[in-house]
Amino acid sequence: MTSFQPSSSRASEAHTAFNRLHRSVQSWIWEQKWEHLRPAQAAAIDPILRGDTDVIISAATASGKTEAAWLPILSSLAAARDNETLARGVKALYISPLKALINDQHGRLESLAEKVDMPIHRRHGDVGDSARRALKEAPDGLLLITPESLEAMFVIQGTRLPVMLSGLQYIVIDELHSFIGTERGAQLQSLLHRVELAIRRHVPRIGLSATLSDASIAARFLRPGNEENVHVIGGHDDDAAELRMQLRGYITSGGGVSDGEEHIEVEPDKLAIADHLFQNLRGQDNLVFANSRASVETYADLLKGISDRARVVNEFFPHHGNLSKDFREDVESRLRSAGTPTTAVCTSTLEMGIDIGSADAVAQVGAPGSVSALRQRLGRSGRRGKPATLRIYVSERPVDHRTPPVDQLRAELFETVATIELLLEKWYEPPNTDGLHLSTLIQQTLSVIAQHGGATAAELYSALCTEGPFSHIDQPMFIQLLRSLGNNDIIVQSSDGTLLAGAKGERLINHYSFYSAFHTAEEYRLVSSGRTLGSIPIDQPLVEGGLLIFAGRRWRILNVDIAGKVINLTKAGGGRPPSFSGSGILIADGIRQRMKQLYETRDVPAYLDEAARTLFQEGRTAYDRLGLRQNRLITWGDDAILFPWAGDRTMNTLHVLFSSENYESTIDGVGMTLSKTSRAQAATALKYLAALPSPNPSELASNVMVKERDKHDVYLDDQLLTHSYATTALDVETAWPLIKHLAEATTQFAEDLQNYRPKSIVTTNTEPMLELAEAGPYAVIDVETTGFSPQRDRIVEIAIVHVDEQGTVQGTWSTLVDPEQSTGPSHVHGITDHDVRSAPRFTDVLPHIQQQLVGRTVVAHNAAFDLGFLRSEFQRAGVMIPSWPVVCTMQLTRSYYPGESASLADTCKRLHIETGKAHTAAADALAAAGVLSSYIARDSKVAARHAPPMSSTADVTEQSR
Fold first, then answer.
1. Which residues have a Cβ under 8 Å from the Cβ of 530 and sit 6 or more positions away?
2. How many CA atoms lie within 13 A of 817 on its CB side?
């Protein structure tokens, strides 16, 4: 282990601050046997007691932030009660991102609140009806609540809410950093504003966080438009624990070995990591963060198996959000109790401030993904004067002459080291605060309508935009959003102009998932002998007799009650963890830039073990061997690989830029692969892009076909969706200077721009396309896929519509396809793993597809995308790809309507073509057939001039759909 000694803490003015507290609160502090107030606690007393300003308390984990807020709040409330000036209703709101954190804070504040005779209420999904009724009938004291439950109060209580909150004096937001820049954060800002609208006055807001990257951004989030008056307390100077750390490296073969008596095959690196955890953590209280719920189950199962074989009591238990409340609380109770050594193998559920005491050690399996996450996790150890202990485990794959360059670089190890180095420098990822959050604005629009029983457009705009958190939405955009909702039957307008929920809007509001701003998958409940173990997503391919690992144990599925969404289990000897949905963490620019620095320096961190040192040196050797110190652009076979050393959002922007030039690009961590592209072509494309003016982000986003990212995006028209995607997924401001730098760095490979042309016009078929009316018959195709890359992803559904020369539909055929991998974005195409469990594989339907296409011109809306996947599937099956003549209706649309949206939905609306459910292959293929028919009838000669031939054997673009 390597130790780091932090700086000493600053002097405290605790005595003066203590004297300002109410005598009952002082008495409670003496009973806790505190020797003094901590710096953040002392500094917070005066501004909070004044009650005329918002406050941010930014201090290290375990520095007493909770008490820093509540000691002065309860002092103020107690003084008001003494003076008989305390109004009826809830006096203080505490808003937390986690139910478990609310439960923890309830226990932590109970004795303090009791000292000043202040009741505490909880409100979240696990709170029973009796407690809810008690709050409704006699609102008083402190209310600890999640944003979702506060949303529910607005919808359900409606006009009664102002009475319940009439006595509100303070609002506390815990883990403030977790909300900033997110849809949930936009919801929280709206709820805070609506609370103040309901009671017709400002209420002081107090934000708590241990990992703020920029206090000014946090202040702007806490009080939009008045951030300069937010009082910010602290920093990280009181982070005074010694840090002991080791990073261990492993090689995984990708194969498996038996884990013991059950003969379940497990990767050897996982077994080695589990064994090291067992040997070093047993007999203590620890947290092991495993990044994903599936990994949590895997390691909890391995550790239990090691304990069983060693004939010792198991001390290792899983903890994640899909486990039942009782199971999670049992693990938390074990961690708090003396005499019950417990290691929780967990996800971020134990990352935030739940009081489980001080962990003896924190372990991290795999790269943590962000500096903020690692800081939160490390903060669980090293309390009460003890050193903080961090063990990190990173696995890399074997390397040989066939290994792609990115995998040769040992990128996960370098990412982990970069994260650690930035942590030691107290750098944290800046949040993306540019998002429009239109999905959440839809939710809040419906919520306000439900709260008041209707509202006018002017009232909605005033409440949510003029002075509310959506002030960046101007009036024309808001009107466009309302029209989009009206077109989707989400809202309707009465004769007097009042907006009401439409039929679809009513269904949304009445569904239990409405209160959350993020996607919530429906789930099956797992039950054994009448006890609920937890839940898993319903898109699991589960069958009776199947094996499963869950709650750290192995189970056999007895039966599946589909109607009741219940899976009954019995203990078994084998299984695998279920797959869980959830998006990964976006890697920041700062981490990737630090990785590049690490590759180019000679220092080796002292905290690496011998295996990690070897892997680290292998990564540097590969970096030099590939020439990356001098070149950002290299070749690998027929491909060019670009190394921008940029974060994921910037990389996505580069990907969209290359796609707009019809280069087939794939993001692979630190690298971007341009398929079937020479280094000269790639460098010339960079030179060409760098010579252009910086693009408008929305114009760039218009090249992306699938832009739905958030919960209610499906109800936005294409223009609004494009604006939303541009602000959320693209970072042109960062990417454009990078493009210029990359162009300059690769200029020696670039050709003269006079010879440059986008890859979209490169084709192996040079014969002119026949007129549309003479090019038939046609086969209009559409595919739904597991992702955006034809090389990595697969087709999950295909539809083919036959159309004759006059544009008449003659027949339709479609089928689901087993992709032999996860079905991917089910929220887009609606296809789950369960749906394709009995579907044919592509090789099974390939002969029928060949028969459907023979002798016809192939048509698609964005033919490059559909034919790219079709081509890859043919190649996987070892079948020669025919040279079909091709027509792209999206290209035709751009020729007829230059500058306007060419999306299928907007094109059909423009041409008055009825469409079915979007992103189903049959409906989209029929819609594209309607577009084709319209263009055949309009002017075949003009259409033909703007539809250059495409060959399925030519380079095609991987465009996001």
1. none
2. 28
Identify the helix (H) or strand (E) that includes residue 848. helix 842-853
Other beta carbons within 10 Å of 406: 18
Task: Classify residue 431 by its DSSP letter.
Answer: P
Residue-level pLDDT at 762:
33
> Which phi and psi angles does 668 have, rounded to 5°?
-130, 70
Identify whether the C-beta of residue 656 lies closer than 8 Å to the C-beta of residue 703: yes
- Sheet of 857-860, strands arranged across: 809-816, 795-803, 778-785, 857-860, 886-888
CB 603 within 8 A of CB 589: no
CB neighbour burial string for 646-682, b if at least 16 within 10 angstroms, e if fewer: bbbbbbbbbbbbbbbbbbbbbbbbbbbbbbbbebebb
Q: Which two tokens stand for residue 158?
A: 């409606």
Is the pTM here over 0.85, yes or no?
A: no
Which tokens is 403 given? 């290994």
Look up residue 729 and give its amino acid: A
Q: SS3 of 574, please? A: coil
Cα(173)–Cα(94) distance, integer angstroms: 6
Contact 670, 406 (CB under 8 A): yes
3-state secondary structure of 90: strand
Arithmetic mean of pLDDT over the chain? 86
pLDDT tens by residue, 62-73: 678 999 999 999
Burial call 594-607: b when 16+ CB within 10 Å, e when fewer: bbbebbeeeeebeb
* 182 token code pair: 């997110």
User: 65-82 and 99-115 are packed helices; what angle lies between their axes, rounded to 10 degrees?
Assistant: 40
Per the CB < 8 A criterion, the answer to whether 381 and 281 are in contact is no
